[in-house]
Design brief:
single chain
Amino acid sequence: MPLYERTRRFRGYQPAVVPGMLQTPGYAAALLGSIAAAHRAPDDSREASEARVDRQRLLYEGGREFTFLIEEPVLRCRIGDNDVMAGQLRHLAEALSLPSVTLGVIPAQARRRMWPLEGSLIFDDAAV
């Protein structure tokens, strides 16, 4: 959390899921629960999703800038049930009303020289 708190300019790219800073509790729990199941790890998705969602308070505190870039399939990939996805899409729309948040979407039809790779998050100019 200290890295997040001292960062003023966040930039992130996610090819497969909604960026963590924009996830709802239901989406985060469904995503982290499926990851735990796939790795046969203990399921602490409820606690982990609460910690992830807690970071979102930074979106509302002011003095920070958040720019996210996602691939269009992120909006279509179903994480959780219909209610989870509907809530997540509503939450994204609400987050976009914040002056500190910008979201870009790369269309599925965009020509590529290369396929989407791993996601990343850039903290100011200090860490990736």
